[in-house]
Amino acid sequence: MLDFFLIDDSQPRPNRNFNLEYIGGIEDELFYELRKEGIIEPWFDYYSDFRWGSEIIARILLKLQQRPKSAALQKEEKEFAAILQKAVDAKAGVLAFGD
Question: pLDDT tens for residues 35-60?
Fold first, then answer.
């Protein structure tokens, strides 16, 4: 699972003992499918921790909303879009932790 936590764009990256709001997670199948389609940039790795700022979140959400829906991943896509929308609504970025 790749877990997402809200973080303000101006907030420094906390150490592992952080107190950030968990907003959801996605499985590797969806992550790699979206990366293959160019929705998620190829240099992001599912098993590495990374950070997306609010501008990146908005761009990924827009790309996700504009792509044709595949029946197999539709539920997971909606869940991922909801995670991204939470960040947009909070005007924040996310920290992602893969395991």
Answer: 998 999 999 999 989 999 999 999 99
The CB-based long-range contact list for 85-90 (8 Å cut-off, 24+ gap) reads: 85/61, 86/6, 86/23, 86/24, 87/4, 87/6, 87/23, 87/52, 87/54, 87/57, 88/54, 88/57, 88/58, 88/61, 90/6
Distances (CA, A) of 13 to 1, 10, 54, 88: 20, 9, 15, 19
pTM score of the predicted model: 0.90
SS3 sequence of 23-71: EEEECHHHHHHHHHCCCCCCCCCCCCCEEECHHHHHHHHHHHHHCCCCC
* DSSP structural state of residue 17: S
